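Notes for week 9. Today we move from apo structures to complexes. The key idea is that a small molecule is not decoration. When we ask for a structure prediction with zinc ion present, the ligand SMILES becomes part of the input, just like the chain. The input block below holds both the sequence and the ligand string. Read it once before you look at the output, and try to guess where the molecule might sit.
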Amino acid sequence: MAEQRGDGRGAGDGRDGGRDAGQSRHRVVRPEEARAWEELVTTAIRTVSDGLVVGTSGNVSVRVGDTVLVTPSGVPYDRLQPDDVTGVGLDGRQVLGTLVPTSELPMHLAVYRTTGARAVVHTHAVHATAVSTLVSELPLIHYMAAALGGPVRVAPYATYGTDELAENMLHALADRSGCLLQNHGTVTHGASLDQAYDRTAQLEWMCRLWLTATSVPGLSPSLLSGEQLAQVQERLRGYGQRR
Ligand SMILES: [Zn+2]
């Protein structure tokens, strides 16, 4: 992957030299966008290799200035090249690349328009998606819910790619950095791709934990109270400052 040109990673300058500019792209890729793209592709590949996504059934985006780089629709992540940088403005108009952006673009843009997020990860992770079909909020099975801002809500179902789904998601995300989408999957955001990715992994893990604990016949798991979770949020804030 992305090896064929060695380190001659000239994205941003000189790439159009050998190309007919007309159809190739909307504007030249800036160096910071080329770097962000590389991280985005790495993160997208990780969602597949860690089992959070099968095929191309998820998508990842990262904000650089007022441009949102996003995985294109239907291209296996390990085939994405430096030349495939796909970017849109906050209004959704494509400004970089010729590949079609993910069909879930409205969700990504809704997050960037309403929060200070720099990255968004969307998956169809199996345990999280299973939980989304059972409850309207993930029960407080573990204190790591505090890392997502509190009890994780489930956004009511709407057809993928629609503004309605984006709106349902925004409601579920209020004061949270992650939510479930009913009969669909997960959405998390963060200050970086790594943070957004980690939140997805934590969310999937918590859902798996709850499903495991509730699968024991005749027993039901103890749950944390809102107060217990608030105490953890307090501690996490301190933890963040010390690092
Ligand atoms: Zn989806």
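The chain has two domains: 1-103, 106-243.
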